[in-house]
Predict the structure.
Amino acid sequence: MKWLEAPALAPLVRELSSQVAASYRVEPETAARLVAEALAGRRDLERLLGRDLDTDQLRRTREYRAAATAARRHVYYRLRRYDRDWGGQAPPADLDRWPGLAPAERRRLLRQVAAGHVSTLERLGSLEELHRRLFALAPGPRAVLDVGCGRYPLVFPLDGAGRCVERYVAMDKDPGCIELVGRYARARGDGRLVAVRADVADGWSAVTGAAGVDRFDLALLLQAVPVIRRLRPRTLAVLARVPAELVVLTGAVRSMTRRERIDRRERGTLLRFADDAGWRVLGEFRTADEVGVLAATGAAVRTPGRPRPLPARR
């Protein structure tokens, strides 16, 4: 909007954008775009420009103070969205090209598409470390359930460290994520990856039916517990009954929105949840981006590395 570039207002827009970039986990260019996006609809602020106010006078007006507060709130809530429309990710339709690509191109494409989901984007820098820790703690799982999967199944190492996994059920209530994972599963064509649109609150019958097993060897609750505890605490009781023998829970090292570390708080949340669920903590790990806990959900737990027979797909 051209009026945002008015001589009296433009310095305030730049100042507000700099403050947002300093406080929130967003690059300066994106901060400027989001601030302009929020201010563009403020007709009360636009009308002030007709009063011939200078920058200092404009800064002190009630209208500008309200607009600045609303802009910060707008940035905060945009950053809390898991699917974002910036970051240079590849178009999801490009997944259809996957079968014809060379291995290096396949990996590059999958990472680009996965980067469109914040929780996956934030672990891309330490992905190999996460997988090394994961399979060291829980070697040899054949049936894996990914709860609240987002776009992470696109970068799970089914053809690498996770080649032991015969059935990977990716569960999410977000239709966009499940559509993407399903498209990737069809491109693979090996039947190992199954995408299921389901809500944790509705129980586990949809995922056990899709897997053809009553219990999974391993469930992945990657950054799921802190989010569900904050947004849907009543669902934690259902989450505690996840049909798996071993569970990996993770939390973030840094806040999703602000420039602050939250790893101690996240670790405490994971350990309290495991304790409340009656699970036995078997180990912990840390990567540059996540803190993690491995827990056994019951007394009768198979020995990691000795897989049980897995029935054929129904």
